[in-house]
Amino acid sequence: MVKPAAHSFWGKGRALAVQFANQSPRSFLILFSLLFFLPGLNTLPPLDRDESRYAQASKQMLETGNYIEIKFQERGRNKKPVGIYWLQAGSAYLLGGPEKAGIAAYRLPSLAGAMLVVLLTHAFAARILSPRGALTAGALMSATLLLIGEATIAKTDAALLAAITAAQFALWRAWHPGGPGHHGRAFSARNNALLFWVALGIGTLIKGPVILMVVGLTVLTLSLWDRKAHWLLALKPLTGLLVYCLIVLPWGIAVWQATDGAFFAEALGRDFGPKLVSGQESHGALPGYFLLLVSVTLWPAALFLWPALVTAWNHRTAPLVRFAAAWALPSWLIFELIPTKLPHYILPSYPALVLLIAFALEQWQRKHEKPNLIALGGTTLLWTLVTIALLALIIMAPYDYGGAVNGGLSAGAAFISLSAIAALWSFWRRQWSASIAACVLTGMVFTWTLLEGVAREIPDLFVSPKLAAAVAKAPPGTPLAAAGFTEPSLVFLTRTDIVLGNGALAAQFLIDQPTGIAIVEAREQSEFLSALAAKRQTAIPVERVQGTNYSKGRDVSLTLYRLNIVRDR
């Protein structure tokens, strides 16, 4: 164990932290991961479009009491199963219900899922690496940029990754029982099998067949690699399938009856299926997309990735390397081959990459192996370029979107620069513990600077909160319509029954609802005013909001109108 000097305030603080981490690694990782996952949880406004659609559909479950059908306003949201909506609705219910719960309440399941991923990654590593190696795996998983992003928004991916990692952990224990981290009778083979099938069922309820693909490919790869599969019997497949069906089928049958089969027709035929054959919703990309992005999405842990992979190849018969490879490689290939691509699709492979990094670091630290020099140079260049780009984001975004670089952002950027230099310096001097610490610190400061600093200095990107604040000045219950700006965040922040459409529809809405408010984007203004004039009506502008609709990549100017009830006749 590390025994730092404790002759100063910082020395004593470091000694206490190391002692806490050594004695209670899980508690330490929970607190440590919160330093990455809490920034932005409450301060970052609801994002368009997927996050706000998930949160709004969960909110409507609480409003209507219908926990079977998934709806966004009056339209069925037949894309993903119900699991994440139940989790978000339960979280929001505990934190005030649909009237009082803010977006943070709907993000908590993602945060909890990300924390479980960190703990499970640590548990994986603890079964074969040293306590320090296991702690390194958990710490690097906490700092991964892609996981931080998913932990902070109300979507499926962090919760799905928790289910996948739990299932893979149970699979690992069945394939490689015992080891230094063996949990003994407290975690029996029966409990391990139960964990596997429960995780598989929950993952299916969260995002359908994705977990089945990742786990199934791992099983297939290991079985072919070993030329045997009898170890699968430890997972008690017959009993397990019954448990799985008891988790998945009740809602499946209920939603089939409630929607007359429409949910499955749309989810499989219009959402999942098309992604396999073409780039859906303009999200197509060529194979190699995720490989090009890994230096960004795995940052800052990506500093160790490429030399770690070389070391892992040199130890390719080691159990942890074999399992991690069976986990990551087949799924990665499938994700690369599927035409539809978004950065977060590859997240299910990332715990395996972190385990390979932790394994390699252990070889370098404890066995004094030397990492490949070419890989060291390549990863240094890539990591430096990504870090410079992230620093540019911190500096440029406020200027581009209505804010300014204040003292806090400047201090954050300076600290990121210094800790990044320290990480690289230690990296090249092969002072691995110092490099890991500086690398993780770089990621932590970047996270806080971006999500708590930059997010407050880009008001032009967050149009819906401005509109919601303007609408809130009207009497409660005021009817509402919007023309030309129909983003889901506006629905979530205002009211479920807001009418979304074009200028003519907004005009008719005001005529039918004389006490209402119409939000009209400049491109719809002419049609709106013409439609009112055709009915011999006029409208009074109440307030104007400007900003950038980042979903469409264009500037918007919106005016809130009331019907001019007192007018010349």
Keywords, please?
disordered N terminus, 569 residues, two-stranded antiparallel sheet, globular, single chain, five-stranded mixed sheet, alpha/beta, 24 helices, 64% helix, D-Maltodextrin-Binding Protein, domain 2
Task: Provide structural commentary.
- The chain has a five-stranded mixed β-sheet with strand order 4-3-5-7-6, with helices on both faces. It has a two-stranded antiparallel sheet with strand order 1-2.
- Strand 1 and strand 2 form a beta hairpin.
- The chain is globular, with a radius of gyration of 26 Å.
- It has 569 residues and is of the alpha/beta class.
- The protein folds into three domains: 363 residues, no CATH class; 81 residues, no CATH class; 102 residues, D-Maltodextrin-Binding Protein, domain 2 (3-Layer(aba) Sandwich), CATH 3.40.190.
- The longest helix is centred in the last third of the chain and has 28 residues.
- The chain has 24 helices and seven strands.
Question: What secondary-structure arrangement, pairings included, does this model have?
Answer:
Layout: H1 9-23, H2 25-37, H3 50-64, E1 71-72, E2 75-76, H4 83-94, H5 97-100, H6 103-126, H7 131-143, H8 145-151, H9 157-175, H10 189-207, H11 210-226, H12 237-259, H13 262-277, H14 289-297, H15 305-314, H16 319-337, H17 350-366, H18 373-400, H19 407-428, H20 432-453, H21 463-471, E3 480-483, H22 488-493, E4 499-501, H23 503-512, E5 517-521, H24 522-534, E6 539-549, E7 554-563
Parallel strand pairs: 3-4, 3-5
Antiparallel strand pairs: 1-2, 5-7, 6-7
Helix pairs in contact: 1-2, 2-6, 2-7, 3-4, 4-6, 6-7, 6-8, 6-9, 6-17, 7-17, 7-20, 9-10, 9-11, 10-12, 11-16, 15-17, 15-18, 16-17, 18-19, 19-20, 23-24
